[in-house]
Target: YMGG-like Gly-zipper domain-containing protein
Amino acid sequence: MNKRALWIAVSVAAMVGDASAQQYVYPANGQSQQQQQSDEASCYSWAVQQSGFDPAKPPPQQAAAQPPTTATGTTPGAGARGAVRGAIVGGALGGDAGTGAAVGAVAARGQSRRQNAAAAQQGQQQQQAATQQQNASFGKARAACLEGKGYTVK
Model:
């Protein structure tokens, strides 16, 4: 499930990134194709310098700092803490403290997995948003340069 969600998120980000990077350049002053290629290369370099971002070399996806987890994806000790709470509740209600401990441990592990998955997803979304913002900044810088050289950019 996690791998599928990650794959979908990366695919969507790639499509959005490609769509926002698409710019149409028209030589408004009758520049030759050779001149346009030279100007576009020059403006690409300038936009990288101005924005600090190169769409051809995006930063590698960094794993968000995640809390340590067990092989099952839970935070270490989550089951033990849940078992203690469950035993207390089970004993206080006059029921079986052992059953309460087992139920509490299972519930705590499930909650821990959900929280860890949500934190990982939030980190990925923040990273994608940052990359999209950098890509937009690059596009604006490139367009400004090309417009300054007599091109119409849309």
